[in-house]
Design goal:
Length: 213
């Protein structure tokens, strides 16, 4: 394989040698040269047919070996055939990864606002955790049980909540001196340790503990 100068038609055994020659003498490449190999043609249509057939376009996909005439066409290819986010110029390697990316705050922003304190969350699930965990400073009375009671009160036909006749709220836990492990009172649900039995029972009865059950 040899590379030709398009001005003086001198040939070189390496691409780098040809480039150095053209830089030194201000010469140019052949008018209809392939973007990827040393072949050149008499017309633009001939070189286009060659590059289409040999996949020899200048711009290549970073995921597969496909090549294209422009960077924009590479992006279109990656969107259609791969997992690519145009806005962030990021490649993903499976459907779940790009789905999580599109569902993140980068693209969805903050769409769920707490009606009590005004704090915004990217999803209704995040807002539910905020309220059910008893962490809203403007609604400390609210936890999972209180939220469910309100839903059941409003949802009389049981469309989104189960009509549990025997339901009496989340289970209540109370530790005894048996929780002492020799140097601390241990929560056998989350394995946290406390200096006093009273502290352990406060932990077991807290909204955070109920929420994590």
């Amino acid at each position: 394989m040899s590379w030709a100068c398009g001005t003086c038609w001198r040939r070189f055994t390496t691409f780098q040698g040809r480039e150095q020659h053209m830089d030194a003498l201000d010469h140019s490449v052949p008018e209809h040269e392939c973007d990827r190999c040393s072949r050149y043609f008499n017309s633009r249509s001939a070189v286009v047919n060659h590059m289409d057939a040999k996949n020899h376009w200048y711009y290549g996909c970073s995921i597969c070996n496909a090549t294209w005439p422009t960077e924009e066409e590479v992006k279109e290819h990656k969107i259609e055939d791969h997992y690519y986010c145009r806005d962030c110029d990021r490649d993903f390697y499976d459907h779940n990864s790009i789905k999580m990316h599109f569902n993140s705050r980068v693209h969805r922003g903050y769409c769920a606002k707490c009606p009590f304190c005004g704090k915004s969350y990217t999803s209704a699930t995040g807002l539910s955790h905020h309220l059910e965990g008893g962490s809203c400073p403007q609604a400390p009375f609210l936890n999972r049980d209180e939220a469910y009671k309100l839903v059941r009160f409003k949802d009389t036909k049981g469309l989104i909540s189960k009509n549990l006749i025997e339901w009496n709220g989340s289970p209540q836990y109370e530790a005894t001196t048996e929780a002492w492990n020799g140097y601390a009172f241990k929560c056998y649900i989350c394995h946290g340790e406390f200096r006093s039995l009273q502290s352990l029972n406060q932990h077991l009865g807290s909204p955070v503990r109920k929420f994590s059950d």
